[in-house]
C-alpha cells in the first residue's frame, strides 16, 4: 500500500505541473506491447551509436520524498540494465553523460555523494567485463581518486573482445571538448613546425573531429534525453550535428525498456538525409 500511495502521489504531482501522465499497464500487457514494437524495428534502421543524457535523478527522488543521493544511486543502478537492452538490440556504441562540468558547481555535500556514486558505478561496469569503456571529459577537474578510478576502468576493459563499447562522459562539456580539440590541433601542428598563420589557413572540420574525445568513433545516430527537458545542454555538440533527437518524459531512474523501444521506433521511421 505504501508503494501505491507513493505512485499516486507522483502521478498527482506530475498532473499539477502540467506534465502528461504516463501510461501504466499490467506487466503482461507491457510484454506484449514491447514485442510488437520490437517486431516493427527493422535491423537496418536501428542506430549504431546512441547517446543518452541521464537526466532527472534528483527530481525523481524529490517526488518520492527522498534525498538526492537516492536518486543518483537509482540512476546509476539503471545503467547496466540499459546497456543490456543495447546488447540485445545489437547497438554497438553508447555514450552516457553522467556528470557535466556545470554539475561541479553543486553544493559540496551533494557533489561528494554524486562523485562517490559515479565512481562505484563505473567501477562495477568495468568489473562486469562486458563492455569496453572509454572515459571522456575534463578528468583534471575531478578529485584525483575518482579520476584514477575512471582511468583504471578504461584500462581494465581496453583489451576486451566484446561487441559493445561504452563512453562514460564525466566532467564533460561539449564546448570544453571542442576547445580541447582545437588546442590539440594547434599543439600538434606546432610540434611539426607550422606557424599560427599556416594553421589558421588550412585547419578544417576533419582536423578538429580527429582530436575530439570520440575520435575514431561514428557520430551518434540517436540522442535521448530523459526527464522531459528538450535541450542538449552541451552534450556532444559537434558530433550531434546530424543526430536524431528523442526527448522522453520519464526520469532516468524510471526509464523502461518500453521507453527505449519507443525511442528506437521513432528513430526508425525518420528520414535521415544527413544534410544532403
List its traits.
10 helices, 276 residues, Undecaprenyl pyrophosphate synthetase, globular, six-stranded parallel β-sheet, alpha/beta
Distance between the termini: 55 Å
Percent of sequence in beta strands:
5-15%
Low-confidence stretches: 1-21
Assigned CATH class: Alpha Beta
Q: Radius of gyration, rounded?
A: 20 Å
CATH superfamily (homologous) name: Decaprenyl diphosphate synthase-like
Q: Helix/strand-derived class?
A: alpha/beta
Order of helices and strands: HHEHHEHEHEHHHEEH
At CATH level 2, the architecture is 3-Layer(aba) Sandwich
Number of domains: 1
Q: What characteristic shape results from the CA principal axes? A: globular
Fraction of helical residues: 40-55%
Largest sheet: 6 strands, parallel
Here the CATH topology equals Undecaprenyl pyrophosphate synthetase
Per DSSP, the total helix count is 10
Reading side by side through the largest sheet, how are the strands ordered? 3-4-2-1-5-6
Strand elements, count? 6
Average pLDDT number:
90
Walk me through what this model shows.
The model is unreliable at 1-21 (pLDDT under 50). The protein has a single domain (48-268), classed as Decaprenyl diphosphate synthase-like (Undecaprenyl pyrophosphate synthetase, 3-Layer(aba) Sandwich), CATH 3.40.1180. It starts with a helix and ends in an 8-residue tail after the last helix. The chain has 10 helices and 6 strands. Helix 2 runs parallel beside helix 10 (257-268), helix 3 packs across helix 4 and helix 5 (108-128) packs parallel to helix 6 (144-157). It is 48% helix and 12% strand. The chain has helices at 2-16, 27-39, 57-63, 68-88, 108-128, 144-157, 174-191, 196-202, 205-209, 257-268, and strands at 49-53, 93-100, 132-136, 165-172, 222-225, 244-247. A 6-stranded parallel β-sheet has the order 3-4-2-1-5-6, sandwiched between helices. It has 276 residues and is an alpha/beta fold.
Amino acid at each position: 500500500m505504501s508503494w501505491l500511495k507513493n505512485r499516486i502521489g507522483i502521478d498527482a504531482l506530475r498532473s499539477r505541473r502540467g506534465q502528461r501522465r504516463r501510461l501504466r499497464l499490467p506487466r503482461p500487457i507491457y510484454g506484449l506491447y514491447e514485442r510488437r514494437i520490437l517486431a516493427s524495428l527493422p535491423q537496418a534502421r536501428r542506430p549504431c551509436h546512441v547517446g543518452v543524457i541521464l537526466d532527472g535523478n534528483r527530481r525523481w527522488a524529490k517526488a518520492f520524498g527522498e534525498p538526492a543521493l537516492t536518486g543518483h544511486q537509482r540512476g546509476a543502478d539503471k545503467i547496466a540494465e540499459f546497456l543490456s537492452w543495447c546488447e540485445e538490440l545489437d547497438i554497438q556504441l553508447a555514450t552516457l553523460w553522467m556528470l557535466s562540468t556545470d554539475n561541479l558547481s553543486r553544493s559540496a555535500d551533494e557533489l561528494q555523494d554524486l562523485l562517490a556514486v559515479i565512481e562505484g558505478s563505473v567501477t562495477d561496469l568495468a568489473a562486469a567485463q562486458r563492455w569496453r569503456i572509454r572515459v571522456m571529459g575534463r578528468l583534471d577537474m575531478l578529485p584525483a581518486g575518482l579520476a584514477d578510478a575512471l582511468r583504471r576502468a578504461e584500462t581494465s576493459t581496453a583489451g576486451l573482445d566484446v561487441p559493445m563499447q561504452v563512453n562514460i562522459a564525466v566532467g564533460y562539456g561539449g564546448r570544453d571538448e571542442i576547445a580541447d580539440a582545437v588546442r590539440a590541433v594547434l599543439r600538434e601542428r606546432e610540434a611539426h613546425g607550422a606557424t599560427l598563420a599556416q594553421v589558421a589557413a588550412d585547419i578544417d572540420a576533419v582536423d578538429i573531429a580527429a582530436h575530439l574525445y570520440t575520435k575514431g568513433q561514428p557520430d551518434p545516430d540517436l540522442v535521448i534525453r530523459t526527464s522531459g527537458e528538450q535541450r542538449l545542454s552541451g552534450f556532444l555538440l559537434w558530433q550531434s550535428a546530424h543526430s536524431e533527437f528523442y526527448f522522453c518524459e520519464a526520469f532516468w531512474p524510471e526509464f523502461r525498456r518500453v521507453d527505449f523501444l519507443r525511442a528506437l521506433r521513432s528513430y526508425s521511421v525518420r528520414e535521415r538525409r544527413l544534410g544532403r
